[in-house]
Amino acid sequence: MRENSAITRRTALTALGAAFAIPPRRLWAQSAAPADFPRRPMTLIVPLSAGGALDVIARLLAPEYQARSGEPTIVENRTDGAGNIGIDAVRRATPDGTTLLVIPAGNLTINPTLMQNLSFDVERDFAPITLLATAPNLFVTAPQSGITSVAALIAKAKQGRISYGSPGVGSQLHLAMELFKLKTGVEMVHVPYRGMPPALSDLLGGHIDVLASNLTVALPAMKSGSVVALAVTTAERSPLAPDVPTLAEAGVPDIDVTSWYGLLAPRATPKPVIDAIFQVTSEALASPALQEKLLVQGLTVKIEAPDTFGARIRRETAAWADIIKARNIQVN
């Protein structure tokens, strides 16, 4: 094999006994990773169903970890209990770096305020490793609504009753629109859906006036002219839709709502292990080929060191708690 070409005949004979115990590929893999990177089978727990952006990220990382450790890395989707069962499984896992949590922002920064009696506490039970990727959100309308800009949306909302859709109560997109309402002083009726596809379908059918959406979900309809993009909710324009202004550019500053995905371990995982996983993850995500695969999903790689990522979680948790309380948002 190519990776063993540096092993000379004499070295191979000297290490014959060890080679029988540890395959040569594993010897190479171990030398390619930091000393504290796990050298046992690893599990990446994803608290959402297979096929989505989060699952794609995990399944791109798994072979990278496996190549460096020489041991299998599997992705396990645990979707029961709104993802809380999967999160709790990582909380209870042995803190040695072999069981990690790949998770979206909302489960970490919104659910602890929104949901009662959770079995975990993010600050107490988990060690942040890194931010992995971000994805833009935006507000869209259908052409028949007559709303062609953020200013027009505000004007129409002030004139009468209009509605907006989101993928569910307490979702990040729901809270993004509630933040918009707070900043602009307008009122709109929230229509929650179970996911983005039915919400987009109702927007196209004229059953709701506006939709808070992930950009990747709305992009095909934007390209066909079926929906009108009003603004992205992020601080900067998206390279996937460079002509769509930010909310600040549209006259509503101080809103920056970005969907993101991160990596965590059980809290008691030793810092050298956390740092080793961070290093390997950063190196893997630096690959242009991997970045291109994520871009197809509408994801942009963004790495943050463990301390910086932890600060992000705390900051956004506090901000969303204020919105949830101010708007009296509750789940049934």
Characterise this structure.
By secondary structure, the protein is an alpha/beta fold. It folds into two domains: 32-135 and 259-326, D-Maltodextrin-Binding Protein, domain 2, CATH 3.40.190; 137-232, D-Maltodextrin-Binding Protein, domain 2 (3-Layer(aba) Sandwich), CATH 3.40.190. It is built from 15 helices and eleven strands. The strands form two sheets. Strands 2-1-3-10-4-11 form a six-stranded mixed β-sheet, with helices on both faces. β6, α10 (172-184) and β7 (189-192) form a beta-alpha-beta unit.
Number of domains: 2
CATH architecture classification of the largest domain: 3-Layer(aba) Sandwich
Number of strands: 11
In the sheet with the most strands, the strands line up as 2-1-3-10-4-11
* CATH fold-level name of the largest domain: D-Maltodextrin-Binding Protein, domain 2
Helix content: 40-55%
Look at the structure and give the mean pLDDT: 89
Give unreliable regions as ranges.
1-31
Q: For the record, what CATH class of the largest domain applies?
A: Alpha Beta
- Which sheet architecture does the biggest sheet show? 6 strands, mixed
CATH superfamily of the largest domain: Bordetella uptake gene, domain 1
Q: From N to C, what is the helix and strand string?
A: HHHEHEHEHHHEEHEHEHEHEEHHEH
C-alpha geometry: globular
Strand content: 15-25%
